[in-house]
Amino acid sequence: MLRKNQQTKNETLKRTLLMLAGLVMAWQHVGAQGIVDTIFNSYLPPASIDLDGDGQTDFSVNWSGSFIGTLDVPQSFSMTYWTLAVLSGGSIGMGDGGGVAVGTAIDASSGFWAASGTGATLAALLEYPLQNREAWTGVLAPDASGLVAVSFPAQDGFTHYGWIRFRQPNVPAEATNGEFIEFGPQIAEFAWNTVPNQAIKAGQTDDPVYFEATFNGGNEVPPNKSTHSGSGSFELESFVDGYILSYNIQLDGAFQPTSAGIFYSANSCQNSSRLVADLGAYSISNLPPPSPIGLVPLDLRHPTPPILQPIVWPSFLIYDGQIALSSNQVAELLQGQLYVNFKSVKFRQGELRGEIFPTAPVPFSATLSSRNEIPRNPRNTSTQRGEAAFTLTGNNLSCEVAMDVNFAWTGIGIYTSPLTTPFSLIAKLDTTYGVMIPAGGLPNAPGLPGQVLYSDNLTLTDEQVYRLNHGDFYINALTSRFRNGEIGGRIVPAE
Question: 226, 227, 407, 482: least buried by Cβ within 10 Å?
Fold first, then answer.
């Protein structure tokens, strides 16, 4: 997990994440500590940096205390040095002296460590007066990142990795009433990985968020009966200079796409012309042979070994790469509004399509009763009840339904409307086998002791995922007496 000191760049992203209950609940489940935002306003060295907030200074920025300059008056040139000192047994890394590049992995294997436990020069040839900012060198040179890699022992006693970003003064240093204004390099922000001995990327400001997509003809607009299919995995990373989306997409080798791209905003009724990125050309990958390879027995009566036919392993089309996203595109990605479309000669508008959904599980629930049946049947005074819990992960929906053991239903299904007609049926749940709920209940499962718990898994289309998220799905239990449903309920996001 990452903790950072940053003022405002990710506020839009955070607000979007908080609106996604599934992601928030997933973070709480794994114990993520979140982001601490503060404003670092120590403009004049010395400045102390306490990365993990344990009250102990880990690093400090200090002025060397001396000037070097020409003897002419006014001086035509002068310089001074600042140092970034290690105070708690950590290390500093500055790459080739010009700062660590954004996205560089920072861990024990990094070969750019410049100091350990003593201190290191930060940046600091400074021409004076500062009419020309190109006088800065080191991590604050015009073409440098301003990033320094650090390692330090945190309060838990283990080594942690992080980064500190510096910036040049906003205004030239000049004498005002005998004092310097923004005299030295400023600490812009910093971040560290709360997991011991685990790498962090330079400039990384948040934990990665993961996504997945399922590609088939049924997700196209309009749907088609293509026999081809595929899947994709995606990783969103946020850095001080923007957002990067990495993707790895695998399609069956018989498919012949003419183009592939990521588009927004996703709409279940039409394709979009708003291209985020063209995925370019694909590569072909073959599956390796299974291991271990079985031996062919040799018949001693016929010592000539049999002629083995070459095995042709299935191939896959691979799209693999990275693209930069704007903050608006990130917001749409987090809301499931970006999708991938593959066009072909036969389907010029798109043969395979799939929306990019967060892999973090999103919970839903439903309460089944006769009162929740729509339309309400005045003859239906059933006292039977049921509870259902659902978890949406990408396009997969896991279902758990708890019913009374003496309830004689003829079928339980998920429908696209409260009217339980065959045309609105999404799937009939498998109730062949059930588990009796013991005293105390079952962990993280619906139902009461004495009821029976049934479970099933469904694969939804992109349109069905969209409708589920918008509250358009219902669950109903049908009986011989009430063939259109005796008890039912709307599937809504779980609190």
Answer: 227
